Amino acid sequence: MTVSRRKFLKIVASSGGALVASGVPLAPQAQARVSTVLPPQATGLLYDATLCVGCKACMVNCKTQNSVPGGALYKSGWPMPPYENGDIKLNNGIWDAPRELSGKTLNIIKVYKNGSAEVKDRAINGYAFFKQQCLHCVSPACVSVCPAGAFRKDPVNGAVYYLADRCIGCRYCQLACPFGVPRYEWDSAWPEVRKCQLCRHRQAEGKIAACAEACPTGATIFGKVLDLREEAKRRQALRPGDEYPFPIQKVGARETTLRPIAHYTDGIYGLVEAGGTQNLMLSGVPFELLGFGRNIAKYDLPRLTWAYIAKIPWVFLGVFVGGTAIYKMTHRNDKEG
Amino acid sequence: MIDMTRFAGQKCGTLLNKLLDDSISEHLGIKLVTPLTVVLVFLLLLSVPVAGYRLLFGIGAASNLNDSWPWGLWIGFDVLGGVAMAAGAFMIAGAVYILNLKKYKCIARAAILNAFFGYLLAAISITLDVGRSFVIWHPLVMWQVNSVMFIVALHLVLYLSTLATESSPMVLEKIGWERGLNAVHRIMVGAVMFGVALSLLHQSSLGANYLIVPGKLSPLWYNKQLPYMFLVSALMMGFSMVSFETILTSKVFKHDVPHDVLVGLSKGILYTGTFYFFFKMYELLTGPGLALVFDDNLEGMMWLIEMAVGVVLPVFLLALPSVRRDKEKMFAADILVVFGVLFNRLNVSIFGVARYATRAGGDYFPSIMEFTLTIGMIAFAVLGFKLCAKYLPLFPDHQESAHPPGTASAAAPRAPE
């Protein structure tokens, strides 16, 4: 069986046309790539480790407030918040003892200890508390890698949230997140990815994030990202030992606590990490000692994969044009015969 | 042979009789019941309850994956490896249908079928790997073009259909449906081009998946050229897999392939392998530097094994004319390349991220169920290939190869010109 050249070209042209048509949504213009700009009204948290006393009230409130409909931990049929027994014997759900962020814990306070652990916020022979949770990247890797669009970034407050109905459970978000934040419900037959969603359901009601609401010392405060950046810079600019009225719950809150400024090291975490995050951190010991790796890229990660994806339509075009040309050349003699 | 018309009615029975007629492969002497086949069937059957258990009780119950190790054996071996092993199809199909290299026509069907099973293996494994297997179709309707995984999903589906189209003439010939056969032949060249484009993208996009983890994947494997490295190594793998499978079938089935076909494939491995070697070395020297390899760590060791055993040794061997004259020696070199590229995929997906994952507090060794399913999938691919070899005109006989290319069957009528 042979195909006449004219017919062949027609077939190639029509299939090529269909392809280009189907490739159109892949073109850069058609769908905006992940934005690298902070939404102007974006909200976030500032965690100042030097103020944290490790009471874990934020963890308690986080779990309670997120186990209601709309919350990031909510699952219909769960009678109570998903407490963890932390592999502790005799703890049959009597008290919550998470060890790590998990499918049941979105926010965790941990302690750093070194040597005799005498002085707070000192790297050597000292100790420090630190908080792990989603940092809400300005340009989130999880949003860009999700094949079904289950991760979204709120265009107004910038919270990175999750739509379980879309998720297929490929766990690419877990691989892609430079901070290792998204956690999976490994014990479920129909699992969800779990991470802090910046109390998006509470923000919709005009409330602030649950952890900031519960923090008694002002270690975690909620506010507009731009205000939080100002606040963090202000604290850094002061001399250690200076008295400073630290706001409680919210940046610029009337209620404050007057305390001396601690010795901050390492700058503000979250200004450049992974292209910037909406949650910011200040600490008295280097962030690397607290498990926030040094090797986190200082630029938005989605650009790495986008550079590849943007080439795809050209590959189709190249193969079809080049392939047709080559086909015509290589089959020239066959057709004459 | 059992007459199926007695069980399935006249129409269905005739069709089944035609399909189950193995006279077509009599000259190959394929026996269905051999000790190996029995073992393979057993392994395949073992994986069935594993798949069921996984679907019923979840990915966490079936695997040893955890939050630090979201991807494990099924992604590393079944998906990355299975797809790489399937690279031969688009290369041979492109060579035969577009470049018009007639001598490879005799292995085109086997290469395409081989790839079909490779992709099927990958598709089944990823379906079981995702936590919500029943909604794995979501990316096809919920497009998210920023995601390489979306690209992978779309391409997997499109390419499986393309491979099925490319393989369909075998079935259509067998049942003698000439109109269908004609239609497939008419779109064949377009389908091949589509397959080439999809494969170029698919092979590279598996590497592109890892572009987003500069902080997690060891710099021995991570670099901006990762997609292209995956592509080049897949080409190398494609040549050797086709060569491997050609020599293997010529050993176990009574069927012979012209020696210059094998030499051509070996030269393909030689050229792509040499390029791959220099590509890897260039990226290593301009990136993390040679010192990292000899830094006395697990990654360095793995990198060395991958490069020495999987790239340098086979390329060196195939550069020797004495090796290219000997089918057995080429076979050995093919096995080395296949091993090397599979090892590379495991390095990228498992060993290369081990340092990060371990620091994050995770430990991973595949569970019995993960191994069982992977082995079962391999058994499935081998068995499927064997069954197709027995019941389908997989190796066009000499009678057919006399016809001009594009002519897969003497039965097909010529299109009017």
Shape of chain A: globular
Strand percentage of chain B lies at: under 5%
CATH fold category name of chain A: Alpha-Beta Plaits
Widest sheet: strand ordering of chain A: 9-1-13-12
Radius of gyration of chain B: 22 Å
Name its key features.
heterodimer; A: 337 residues; alpha+beta; Alpha-Beta Plaits; four-stranded mixed sheet; three-stranded mixed sheet; 10 helices; 28% helix; globular; B: 417 residues; mainly alpha; Formate dehydrogenase/DMSO reductase fold; disordered C terminus
Tell me what the structure shows:
Chain A: The chain crosses the membrane at residues 306-327. Chain A: Its main location: other. Chain A: GO terms for molecular function: 4 iron, 4 sulfur cluster binding; metal ion binding. The complex is a heterodimer of chains A (337) and B (417). Chain A is of the alpha+beta class. Chain A has a single domain, classed as Alpha-Beta Plaits (2-Layer Sandwich). In chain A, the strands form five sheets. Chain A has a four-stranded mixed β-sheet. A three-stranded mixed β-sheet of chain A has the order 2-4-3, with no helix packed on it. Chain A has a two-stranded antiparallel ribbon with strand order 5-6. Chain A is built from ten helices and 13 strands. By secondary structure, chain B is mainly alpha-helical. Chain B has a single domain, classed as Up-down Bundle (Formate dehydrogenase/DMSO reductase fold), CATH 1.20.1630. Chain B is built from 17 helices and no strands. Residues 398-417 of chain B have low confidence and may be disordered. The interface between A and B is large, with 74 and 77 residues.
